[in-house]
Write a structure and sequence with these properties.
This protein is of the alpha+beta class. Helix content is about 15%, strand content about 20%.
């Protein structure tokens, strides 16, 4: 399984795989006693990849919306980009929380999906030994090289995910992203019908990466 390393300056959330929890930082033995209320106990389970630990200065709404959930023993630690915490306010019921794609090769997924999502304005959100995610608004997209997967390639024609489609601001940007995509592990589908493979009023690029995942870029 491919492993990635956090970039310098990211906040570490969780702990190494197989850990029992957190050891909170506190005053040294030489520190003077505090007159304030006694310290709260440390959490006993690490944050799973689907949770973000609120940083200093996070609003109470953001903290309330990022309550950690228990995870099975052995959950790998998660590294978050600075400021990648839960957003203030709550999304409406029914809004997409996240999409998780199981990939056969994490490094290839980072090359193709990582480039595409950051080009579309997503921010690096989580990074752990088996996966990575990128966030936009309240939603985020995960690519994970899970040992529990049962196939080595995605088949979009089988039941399940066929493709992900993204709004693109204008035809010129669709064309620009399509040209760059070919340098980042994507190929153009239906080239003889591009950019109207979806119909005369539907200006879009249909892209497929090495592992069989499809992304559609739709001009608004």
């Amino acid at each position: 399984m491919a492993e990635t390393q956090a970039e310098a300056g990211w906040q570490q959330v969780g702990s190494a795989a197989g850990s029992e929890g957190f050891i909170p930082a506190g005053p040294s033995p030489a520190s003077p006693p505090q007159s304030a209320s006694p310290p709260q106990p440390a959490p006993t389970t690490p944050y799973p990849p689907s949770q973000a630990l609120p940083s200093a200065g996070t609003t109470s709404q953001a903290i309330e919306s990022s309550v950690p959930q228990p995870v099975p023993p052995g959950q790998p630690g998660v590294v978050l980009e600075p400021g990648a915490t839960a957003m203030a306010g709550r999304p409406p019921t029914g809004a997409i929380h996240h999409v998780e794609l199981w990939v056969p090769n994490l490094d290839r997924a980072i090359v193709s999906w990582g480039w595409l999502l950051t080009s579309l304005g997503y921010r690096m959100f989580q990074d752990w030994p088996g996966g990575r995610s990128w966030q936009s608004g309240h939603a985020y997209i995960v690519v994970e090289q899970s040992p529990a997967r049962t196939a080595s390639r995605h088949d979009r024609c089988r039941p399940g995910l066929n493709h992900l489609a993204f709004h693109i601001n204008g035809r010129d940007l669709v064309d620009e992203l399509t040209a760059e995509a070919l340098l980042h592990g994507w190929r153009l589908m239906f080239p003889d019908e591009h950019p109207f493979a979806g119909g005369p009023q539907h200006y879009a690029a249909y892209l497929e990466n090495y592992d069989g995942f499809e992304a559609e870029l739709v001009a608004d």
